[in-house]
Each structure stands twice: as C-alpha cells, then as structure tokens.
Amino acid sequence: MSEIENKAENGSTESAGECTTGDTKDDKGLGLGVIFFIVAFIVCFLSGTLLFPKLLYSKKEQPFNFDHELHVGEAGDCDACHSLRDDGSFTGIPKLETCLDCHSEEPMGETDDEAIFTQEYVVKEKEVPWLVYSRQPDCVYFSHAAHLLGKDEMDCASCHGPIGESTSSRPYEENRLTGYSRDIWGKNIFGIKKNSWDSMKMDDCAECHKEKNDQKGYCFQCHK
Amino acid sequence: MKQENTKTHKFGMVIDLDKCTGCGSCMVSCMSENNVPFKDDESDKKKSITWMRVYKLTNGKSFPDTEMVYLPRPCQHCAGKGGHGHSPCVSVCPATATDYGYDTGIVSQIYTRCFGCRYCMGACPYHARYFNWWDPKWPEGMEKYLSPSVSPRMRGVVEKCSFCYHRYQAARDIAYSQGDKNEIPEENYQTACTTACPAGAIVFGDLNNPEHKVHKIVNPDPHPDTFNKHVVGKSRNPNVFRLLERLGTNPKVYYLSEREWVRKAGDNYREGEWDKIKNHYGATSTHG
C-alpha cells in the first residue's frame, strides 16, 4: 500500500516538476491517442459493416435473367406458376413442364435470356437449375398451405416481398459459413428489418406467431 | 397455453403383443422412413440406433411351458406426471431441444438445438433415446433415397422416435387444403411402423377421438387413477397396460395382451405386489 502511495506521490511530484516544460507535450500525446482511437474505430467499424458481408457471402448469378413483372402481366398472379397441389403441398419454383404451357422451342421474346432459355433448356429438355433465395435450412418445416389457407390468409408478399414487380433476377448470395441464402438473415448485417419480408429467421417466424397465436408454438410446428 | 381454434389431439398407439410375431418390419420401416443411419455392425446394439426396437421377453419357464413375447418399443411420448407435459426428457433438457406439443401430445426432438449433453437419455426410463457418436455414413448413391421430409442428424446430437411427425404435417396440409385444419382423418396420419406391421399388431390414432380405433381399444380413463394421482389416461381395458405405469410418466404407447405374465412384465413388481393390483384394470400403483 505504502509503495503504491509512494509511487503515486513520486509520479505526481515528477509530473508536477515537469509541469512547466511538459504540459503541452502531454496534451499532444493524449490528442494523438484519441485520434488514433477514433481512426481505428472507424476502420474496424467500416470493415465490419462493409467488408465483412462481402467476405461472408459469395455471389452466384442465376442461370439467366427472369422478368417477374413481365410474367405477372402475361400469365397472372403468383399462383399461375407457384401453386398448391391438391394435397396441400407447395409446388415451389415451377418445373420446365409448367413453363412449356406457354413457351415452346421458338423464343417468345427477343431478349438474350429468352434465347438462353430455349436453346439451353427447352431444346435440351433440361430443368433450369434456379437458385432459391428463400430456401430454408434442412431442419425447417414450412407449410405454405397453413399460411395461405389458414385463419390469416397471408399473401405471398408478406414473406417474399414485392418480387412480382422485379424485372431482373438479383444475384444469389450464399453464406460461406452456413451455406444458407442471404435472404434468411436478411440484407442488413445488423439484422434490422423495416419490412416483414426483410429476413426469414426463426425469430421472424416466432414474432408473427406470437402476435397472431399468443404463443410462439411448439418446436415441431416449424421443425422436422 | 392458449391457442385459438384448436381441438387438441393426443396421438397414441396400442400394440397387441399377442399378435406381434417379432418379425422386425416395424424396425426396418422406421429406419428407412426416418433416415436413421446404420452402422457397420448393426448387431452391436450399443452402437446401433433403433427408434423402434423389438425386445424379446420370456416367461422364464422351461419346456413345455415356455412362452415368448416380442415387445416393440418406440418412444413412449410421455405426458409426464398428471399429464401436464413434464415428460422426463423434456423437464431435464437444458437447451429446450425437446418439448411437449400440447396440441398433439408428441414429444419433439430438434437436432439443431441439441448440443448432446445426453441428460435426456439418462432421464428416459424406456431407453428410447439414442446418441449419434458418428456422422451418418450412407453407402454411395443412397443419399438419393433419403426422405426429404425428415432432417438427417449430425454427430453429437440425440435422436428418437417422433411418431412420424412429418406424416402429421403432411396430413395437416391436406386438412388445410380441404378447409378444416383440425379434421385429420385416422387414415391420413399413420406412423410407418403401423402401416408396415404385417400382423396388424400396431394401432395408431388420436386418443382424444372416440371414433378412432386406438381410443376404442384403450378407452382411457379421463380421471386420475384412484391409487396414484400422477397416473392419468389409464386404460379401462383390463388387458391393456403401459410400461412402468406407476412412475406417472403417462406414456401414450399402450400394450395389449390377454396373457397375465406379459402384463406383469410391464413393470418390476415385488413379491405379492402383482396379485393385489392385477384386478384393478391393468396394473397400477399401490405405492410410489
């Protein structure tokens, strides 16, 4: 105790002794420290928010561009292509067969994407390997029937957003660590959401379930 | 637990031990239905994972009085003391990786949530839970045959029978598309073991629905047992019993046998204990 006190006293006397000459020098050191801290903070913060998502997600392009707006105009609402089967299961992204209801080996439009579609897939009778933005992890069970036909009769946009108004397919971003689509966590790296479709995590499901059903539900309601 | 517009189900099973031939079809169908991985040596029961397991019991008498019975044992989906959902495994899980579905009576197991402490395995009186010591290895090309409705398990988690919950999910989807989500016809939701049993020894259905065959056989008592208030849903059929019934775990798997020694084998009775209680429909507790 006494040693510390001595040191403290010595320290204070020393600094007091140098006071006349070293006052401005000390302030400069402190100022540099503060500047260094602020700069380092900004660098870390920016690399965390701007660089980290770039490193975390890899980008993949869809096989070719798909114009949702055009198709909604031509074919009708979402359920013209994405529908429920008779047993209540969901068809998801349509197979080539559904596309061929309208399309044929002759391109319908003049875009490059239409040419790719007919040459690579329709002529070769190959399924288009679409990358599914909203693909959930394997442990998740999601019933489209329960949400579309249940008591709340939700619409597609409440989870998928205004995708029917898009004219081009954005790149598919895959989390390098988990292999999940970026749409699950959401675009915002902090997990802040403005719209109900901004993220599709378990918490987002639970939030809505709690609001509508007074409880989050049992594990098996959404898991398998 | 309030849930709007919910008619609660209580799915249960009754297994007729007099019909069971011990063929093992239920075990095979269960493994293939639920993507249960198999080991190099499946005969090593310390390592193998069997959600449904057939045990062999004998009456211990020598020829010509020897009798044998095969007892299939899935997860018992215990409702816990008083039927309040405090199953032995659910109440000990520190991760909430397993919970009791009050809407179905089914005990879940969420593999991504489980961190493998195996506390539930210690708590389960029926040895119905299994630990994955290794990642599953499928022979080449076999991954393509796995069921997409059941999530495969990874190393380090516990797994168990789910009463083929994915079949309930599928049945509910049908119910939704037909207008009433709570109307699940008996034939729309049957477990894999039930449908596979060639002897028809396994009957599955909703214990809350008097129309279902399982309810007709079991005829569960809605009131707590007079001798042990922890026991609820006791069968009023004198030939029906549950395993270790007096513990008050209240399993939803019932067993049926006309033979007295088989019913007695459902618990460990002390000398003279059985005779006192055997006439109280099915065996129940006088102590504990």
Walkthrough of the structure:
The complex is a heterodimer of chains A (224) and B (288). Chain A has 224 residues and is mainly alpha-helical. Among the domains of chain A are: 2-59, no CATH class; 132-222, no CATH class. Chain A has 9 helices and 2 strands, in the order H-E-H-H-H-H-H-E-H-H-H. Chain A has a two-stranded antiparallel sheet with strand order 1-2. The longest helix of chain A is centred in the N-terminal third of the chain and has 55 residues, at 2-56. Chain A is globular. The N and C termini of chain A lie far apart (63 Å). Chain B has a 4-stranded mixed sheet with strand order 6-1-8-7. The two termini of chain B are 30 Å apart. Chain B is built from 8 helices and 8 strands. Chain B is 18% helix and 11% strand. Chain B is globular, with a radius of gyration of 19 Å. Chain B has 288 residues and is of the alpha+beta class. Chain B has one domain (11-277): Alpha-Beta Plaits (2-Layer Sandwich). The longest helix of chain B is centred in the middle third of the chain and has 13 residues, at 165-177. The chains are: A mainly alpha (224), B alpha+beta (288).
Integer-rounded radius of gyration of chain A: 29 Å
Query: Stretches of chain A where pLDDT falls below 50 for ≥5 residues?
Result: 11-22
Distance between the termini of chain A: 63 Å
Characterize the biggest β-sheet of chain A.
2 strands, antiparallel
Q: Which class do the helix and strand fractions of chain A yield? A: mainly alpha
- Strand segment count of chain B: 8
Percent of residues in helices of chain B: 10-25%
**How much strand of chain A?**
under 5%
Total count of helical runs of at least 4 residues of chain A: 9
Q: What structural category characterises the helix and strand content of chain B? A: alpha+beta
What does the overall shape of chain A look like?
globular
The residue ranges of chain B in which pLDDT falls below 50 over 5 or more consecutive positions are 1-5
Biggest chain-to-chain interface with counts: A-B, 24 and 38 residues
Rounded to the nearest angstrom, the radius of gyration of chain B is 19 Å
CATH class of chain B: Alpha Beta
Placed side by side, the strands forming the largest sheet of chain B appear as 6-1-8-7
Fraction of residues in β-strands of chain B = 5-15%
